[in-house]
Amino acid sequence: MRIGVTGSRHGLTLAQMTVVTRELQLLSWMSVTDLHHGDCTGVDVQVAAIAAGLGYRTIAHPPTNETHRGCHPSDEVRSAFDYLTRDRHIVDETELLIGCPDGPERPKSGTWYTIGYARKIGRRTLVVDPAGDVVDSGLRVGS
User: Fold this and answer.
1) CATH T-level topology, domain 2-92+99-137
2) SS3 state of residue 3
3) Pick from 114, 83, 73, 72: which is nearest to 97 by CA?
4) pTM of the model
5) Residue 46 region, left (φ>0) first, then alpha (ψ -120 to 50), else beta?
6) Which of 34, 78, 90, 140 could make an SS bond with 4 (beta carbons 3.0 to 4.6 A apart)?
7) What is the rounded CA–CA span in Å between residue 38 and residue 122?
8) Confidence of residue 137 (pLDDT cuts 50, 70, 90)
9) Strand order of the sheet with strand 34-37?
10) N- to C-terminal Cα distance for the chain?
């Protein structure tokens, strides 16, 4: 299984970091090997670093707009695309999307756009709110 991540460029809260780390640990025991991320500051590079530390291969999908590029030293770097196109590529290439938004669903949020696209095409999602609560789970690994 390949997983993707989407989230705020403001980064993970401590609660989100705790939940995401636990889930990545559990998924690694289930032979999940690849993490696809958008290579932006905040959640993308934080989760990529956690995943790399757990032995995942990290695959970056950078944006063409480099204003918020995180430049995580990934195992593979894909061609750059505009934000929404690269977000769809992440979802298209994975079976599970972990979403870490910085608040409730709202229009014009790239994180929520990506989560919505994953839901629309039937991908499993694990959405962790800033308090660390799993508010949407198509696959819950931990208890």
Assistant:
1) Rossmann fold (3.40.50)
2) strand
3) 114
4) 0.91
5) alpha
6) 90
7) 20
8) low
9) 76-77, 57-60, 34-37, 2-7, 96-100, 124-128, 134-137
10) 20
| Residues 36 and 129 sit within 8 Å (Cβ to Cβ) | no
Domain ranges of the chain: 2-92+99-137
The two three-digit tokens of residue 14, written as one number? 């401590």
Distance CA 126, CA 123 (A): 10
| Phi, psi (deg, nearest 5) at residue 112 | -70, -30
Helix or strand holding residue 84 (H, E): helix 83-92
Pairing of β 34-37 and β 124-128: unpaired
The 10s digit of each residue's pLDDT in 88-119 is 999 999 999 999 999 988 888 999 999 999 99
Strands (E), 16-107: 34-37, 57-60, 76-77, 96-100
Three-class SS of residue 85?
Answer: helix
Rounded-to-integer distance, Cα 36 and Cα 60, Å = 6
